[in-house]
Every structure is written in structure tokens, then in C-alpha cells.
Amino acid sequence: MFRSLYRAAKAVTVSAGSDASFSGRSWAEACNCGASRAFGGTTPTAAQPALAGDAEWTSASPENQTLMPASRRTGVIAVKVGMTQAWDKWNMRIPLTVLWIDKCQVTQVKRDETEGYTALQLGCGSKRDKQLNGRQIGHCKAAGVDNKRKLAEFRVSQDAILPIGHELNAAHFVPGQFLDIAGMTIGKGFQGVMKRHGFKGQPASHGNSLAHRAPGGIGACQDPGKVWPGKKMPGRMGNKRRTVQSVWLYKVDPLRNLLYVRGQIPGHKGNFVEVKDAVMKQAHQQPARPLPTYLGPALSEVQTAPPSEKDPFDYQDA
Hints:
By secondary structure, the chain is mostly beta strands.
């Protein structure tokens, strides 16, 4: 299996294309490639949609489209760098979390005709060959990208599909918009009910012996004669996937591929998080965003969300 994948990866050839370069390859090269290839057998298997001769992408040009209410853009994989702070024109402190987009590229495109749904698989970071197995190396080579440390999948609409190898940067998002950020929370280990569930605990004196932090009774009488499922009890705390919704994007640094979002997000510093447009915000509640992504010239200026015109210290008497 590994040898067949390696041979398939070597057999992928990229055809010549236009002069508009994206992520080291031209747009036509990324959209127009070999029609099919075989994986370790005589039966031909369809190539990845981005590598196949797709009429939809062949005629596509690297220009931004109009974002429709039903459009669903892809997200990105970012690295949590840490927290900092900023002050607005009203001298209000804004706590910020810094996210770094490290070589986030499209590694696979999934279509309704093949997988039954439309999605983009993205890869972020980098790894050496000895840190990956044969299947992972072959998957990255077939896509024409470097070895990736983290892979994630994002559902998209038909008008938001990107070619394989296209690199997403911080300009994909617009300052002032709202984001959903998902990641693994910090693991706390095995904890009791007071720390894990916020129980107030048992009395500190008056007859209590060695049961100050105990949960108390956990069952009922002979009927039902069991502990109900979902009972709040001691156990492992943290290290679960959680999503923080509607996080406000304060600043975008396209030159360094940094995002500054307000508030905290799950995970340690250095953890990977998935960033995408907020699902709880409607189109009129978000600023204009590029579709499928920003395809214009490289940006170098830091973009900041417009400040609030209302003085937060101007309290009105009831």
C-alpha cells in the first residue's frame, strides 16, 4: 500500500498554466492537472477534484466573487501564540489573543460526486519525513505541498472551493467580523466535584469528619437502585474539544499572518485551533468578506477594526 501511494505521488504531474502565481503555482496549474491515476492496481481511480480537469475550475479566474447569504467560506488552522492587550480611543483595555497562521494550504478537495459532501482539507505547519508515515507523506506529495503537522477539514459551499496547494493567509478575514474558534481545552487531570462542577462542599465543622470536599449522596433508595447516568461526580477535567462562538476580530496583520481576537480561546500556547466565520451571525451582522478568499495583491499594512463611537464611560442616569 505504501509503495503504491509513493508511486502515485511521483506520477502526479502539473501542467503549464497562466502567469498569475499563487503559493508557488499558477492558478491554472492548480486548477488544471492530470485527469486520473491508478492506486496500486489496474482499475483507474479518479484523482482529487482539484487535480482533475474540472470545467468549473478551468474557467475560473483568480478574482473575488460576491458573497451570497448561502455562501459558506472555508476556515483556517492557526496556532495560539499567547495573549496581549490594547487600548482603544476611549482608553478602554481590550484583552487580545494572538493567532498565527503558519503555511495553511489546501491539501484535498472533497466533492459531492466522490465523498458525498463538499469540503476542503487544510494543512498547517511542517514536519520532516521521518516524523510521518508513508501514507501521510504520499498524501502531501500528491497534493504538491510540504509535509503538514496538522490537518483539518472545513465544509464549504460550491462557490467557495479553492484549488489544491492554495495558501490561506490572515487577509482571509476582515477586522470587525465575528469568528468561531475551536480547540482542545487545557487538561486539569482527575479533579473532585468542587473544582470540576462547582459544588460548595460539606460543612466545615459540627460533626463532619473527613468529608469536607466529598460529593455527598449519589444514589436513591431501593427504587431505582442505581446511580443515574450523567450524575456529576469526580473525574477527568479538561482536554476536551470546545468552541468559543462569536469572537470579535480586533486586528489583522497580513505581513506576519497574525490575527488578534478579543478574549480567551481554548488551549495552551502553541496549540492548533480552527478558525472560521461565526455561524450565529447573519450576513448583515458581518462586514464584507472576500469569497472564496482574498486574491488581491499582498497586503503589508496592519488593519484594525473601526472604534466604537459610543463613550463607554458616558453613563446615563435611570
